[in-house]
C-alpha cells in the first residue's frame, strides 16, 4: 500500500484550491450568464440550471458525487477523495460567486465570453489535474465504461462533451450557442494541455 505523503497532499490541495477557484470564476464570469456550456459535468450543470433554475453549484454536486461514489473502486481512494474535494470546493465557489456575491458577466460578447471562459476554465481544470484529481464525475463514467468494454476513456469523455454540445442547442433553442460551446470546449482542452505540459 502506498504511503501517505503529507507534503505531497498539501501540494495537491493547493493546486485543487487554485484550480477550483479558476473553474468557478470561468463559469460564473463568462459561460453561465452567456448561456454557453463547457464540457463534462460542469457543462451538464449549466444546462440543467437553465432548465430547472436551481443553483449551478448545487447541480454540480448532485451530478458529480453519485458518479464519483459509483466509480470509487475504479478511481482509487486517494484520487476519488481529491476529486470529491475539487467538486465540492468548485461547486461551493460557483454558488458563492453567482448566488451570494452575485457577480455578473465580464462580457456580453459571445466570442469574448467563449474564449476567456475556455481559457480560465482550462487553467482551472489543468491545475486540478496537476493536483492529481479530476474536475468531475465524467472521469468516473469513462473509467467504468472502459473497464467493462473496449472503449477508451478519452472516447467516453469526448462522447459526453458532444452530447452536451448537442443538448445546449436544444436547451437554449439556439444552434449558435452549441457552436460557441464547441469552441469553448476546444479552447479549454488546449489550455489544459498547456498547463500540464507547458507546450503551446
Structure description:
This protein is mainly alpha-helical. It contains 9 helices and no strands. The protein is globular.
Task: Give me the secondary-structure category.
Answer: mainly alpha
End-to-end separation: 37 Å
Helix content range: over 70%
> What is the mean pLDDT?
91
Overall form? globular
Largest sheet: none
- How many beta-strand runs? 0
Number of helices: 9
Gyration radius, in Å: 16 Å
Instruction: Give, in order, the helices and strands.
Output: HHHHHHHHH
* Uncertain parts: none
Tell me what portion of residues adopts beta-strand conformation.
under 5%
Layout: helices, strands, pairs:
Blueprint: H1 6-31, H2 40-52, H3 56-70, H4 72-75, H5 77-100, H6 110-130, H7 138-148, H8 153-171, H9 175-197
Helix pairs in contact: 1-5, 1-6, 2-3, 2-8, 3-5, 3-7, 6-9, 7-8, 8-9
In summary, what is this structure?
By secondary structure, the chain is mainly alpha-helical. The protein is built from 9 helices and no strands.
Amino acid at each position: 500500500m502506498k504511503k501517505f505523503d503529507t507534503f505531497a497532499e498539501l501540494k495537491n490541495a493547493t493546486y485543487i484550491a487554485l484550480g477550483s477557484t479558476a473553474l468557478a470564476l470561468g463559469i460564473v464570469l463568462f459561460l453561465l450568464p452567456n448561456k454557453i456550456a463547457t464540457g463534462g459535468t460542469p457543462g451538464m450543470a449549466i444546462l440543467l440550471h437553465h432548465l430547472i433554475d436551481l443553483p449551478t453549484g448545487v447541480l454540480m454536486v448532485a451530478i458529480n458525487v453519485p458518479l464519483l461514489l459509483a466509480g470509487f473502486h475504479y478511481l482509487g481512494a486517494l484520487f476519488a477523495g481529491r476529486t470529491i474535494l475539487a467538486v465540492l470546493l468548485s461547486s461551493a465557489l460557483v454558488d458563492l460567486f453567482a448566488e451570494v456575491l452575485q457577480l455578473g458577466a465580464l462580457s456580453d460578447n459571445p466570442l469574448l465570453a467563449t474564449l476567456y471562459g475556455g481559457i480560465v476554465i482550462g487553467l482551472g481544470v489543468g491545475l486540478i489535474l496537476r493536483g492529481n484529481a479530476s474536475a468531475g464525475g465524467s472521469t468516473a463514467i469513462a473509467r467504468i465504461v472502459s473497464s467493462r468494454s473496449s472503449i477508451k476513456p478519452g472516447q467516453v469523455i469526448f462522447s459526453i462533451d458532444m452530447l452536451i454540445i448537442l443538448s445546449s442547442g436544444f436547451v437554449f433553442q439556439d444552434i449558435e450557442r452549441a457552436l460557441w460551446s464547441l469552441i469553448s470546449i476546444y479552447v479549454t482542452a488546449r489550455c489544459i494541455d498547456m498547463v500540464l505540459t507547458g507546450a503551446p
